[in-house]
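Researcher: Good morning. I'm working through a list of sequences from a screen, and I'd like to move beyond sequence-only analysis. For each chain I'm collecting a predicted structure so we can compare shapes side by side. This is the next one on the list. No need for commentary yet; just the structure.
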Amino acid sequence: MSHIVLEGFTPDGGDFVSAGPTVVEGIVNGTAVRALCGKVWVPGRDPKRYPLCPTCKEIAERQGWKLPAG
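Model: Good morning. Structure tokens for this chain:
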């Protein structure tokens, strides 16, 4: 499965706040990342080759986030 990783957010009128390691950091440094569904792993494969995790998708849609078609 492909998962959605929240890399950070910007509160109203504030600066960017990191939510943990980014996917790029995970790939380059071998650092584990956490998906919206709670899965923790070290990214290393092309996520476009796998279906989207239904739990990550549901959480993102509840937040009103737009997901890419795919």
